[in-house]
Amino acid sequence: MTAPEILDRTGDPKPSNDLGERFLKSADELAALRERGVLAARDLCAFIDRSPTPYHAVREVASRLGAAGFSELEERDVWALKPGDRRYVIRGGSTIVAFVAGAEHPARGGFRVLGAHTDSPNLRVKPNAELSRSGYQQLGVEVYGGVLYSTWLDRDLSVAGRVHVRRDGRVERHLVDLVRPVARVPNLAIHLNRGVNSEGLVLNAQKHLVPVIGLGREGDLHAALARAVDAPRDAILGYDLCLYDTLKASLGGLADEFIFASRLDNLASCHAATSALIGAGDVGAATRVIALYDHEECGSRSAVGAAGSVLRDVLARIVEAYREREPQGFVRAMAGSLLVSADMAHAVHPNYADQHEPRHAPQINRGLVIKSNVNQSYATDGATAAALEALCHDVGYAPQRFVVRSDLPCGSTIGPITAAALGIATVDVGAPMLSMHSCREMAGTLDVHLAIETYKRALG
Fold it and tell me: Which InterPro entries does UniProt cross-reference here (predicted)?
């Protein structure tokens, strides 16, 4: 099904201004763009389904990079690089930095960096998690990030992450995904909570978000994990486990305008960055980089987060790994570089439109959003916004703008953290979405294509 055409006075279809007054599109042009969006969105859905945790997301990114000719570098090795090398580095299993070495030494060519994050708000399994209450076997969980509690109720949940196993005198690390629904956080029936629809649902994370995994003592998470990694139960030494919704990502809307999925914030940006790096074309003067971090949703303060040293370490080593030597190379490289901090943006909600600042209400399928905040919750300034605007124009649309209302607090991203750590010019952008931080989110299919094409150009 296609959208109805609007006719001008001559009876001919009127060009659409959906992507900006300067970028009018005929019905055929818009249909072709939407078709590309649907194709890109289907690939995004597959990416999300294979990435229930940050560890699985990094594995999926590495797999795609490997298929495109990238190879892994170990942090403990000495690096030697030449122009055109396609390499990636994984730290902690949940953060990955990939790059294509530029034709010029970074001191002269600089870096073009896309930053995003692999983690999403969810429920995570506590160390001693199994407990019994009222005849049910339950799983103790901890809230990770800014979870929208109510959206995790009555979902068919599974468990995934990584497990550390002792085998043959060594500690091995295995990714695990139980795949099928094994847990549920059941809602309280309205008959026992009569005022819920008028007074609102108030949930206590400790009391009300504890999932059920079995009856009596039949539930045994350690035994299920042991079967998944083919090891004895007592060989499991530790784990990092997340709950996730087993419902697959899908396209929606009468004309496939939407994506309905978990973890769009921020796997959609990770997918777009990875796709852009793979598809960016011939080697340019600048070194192209994507940095996909863990722990953004809880402040980025970790060895694998944006407040850690991972990106600085990788960029500094790239500067040093070229055969030719350049004095004061790292600082010179930073002075000639640009970071695009890619994190999802708040689309205007039709039922809550008054929550947006007037004239800063992004719409789905109208392209990327430049995010600004004078108090530096976003790192965008006039110069970096102009640079991003020009890239969007090259793709064929006008970017949208977002600032938070003056009477509401502003969220933040990896942008200001990285800008402060590296002294790198930064712009904060993202594709518009609804239901951010819900267990199930939604975004636009056309925006997937526009994001990838814009990020390709940002990489140079």
Answer: Peptidase_M18, Peptidase_M18_dom2
Edge-to-edge strands, sheet with 345-346: 250-252, 258-261, 441-444, 432-434, 345-346
> What confidence score (pLDDT) does residue 9 get?
55
CA distance 162 to 151: 25
CATH of domain 27-120+262-459: 3.40.630.10
CB 428 within 8 A of CB 343: yes
Task: Supply the DSSP symbol for 302.
Answer: S
Cα 435–chain centre separation? 14
Residue 261 CA to chain centroid, in angstroms?
Answer: 12
d(CA 141, CA 152): 12
Mean pLDDT of 427-436: 98
CB 291 within 8 A of CB 308: no
Q: Could you count the other beta carbons within 10 Å of the beta carbon of residue 352?
A: 9
What is the secondary structure of 166-230 as a DSSP string?
Answer: EETTEEEEEEEE--S--BB-PPPPGGG-TTHHHH-----HHHH---EEEETT---HHHHHHHHHT
Looking at residues 396-407, what average pLDDT do you find?
94
Q: Which fold has domain 122-245?
A: Aminopeptidase i, Domain 2 (2.30.250)
Do 81 and 297 meet the contact criterion of CB atoms below 8 Å apart?
Answer: no
| Per-residue model confidence as pLDDT tens digits over 294-331 | 999 999 999 999 999 999 999 999 999 999 999 999 99
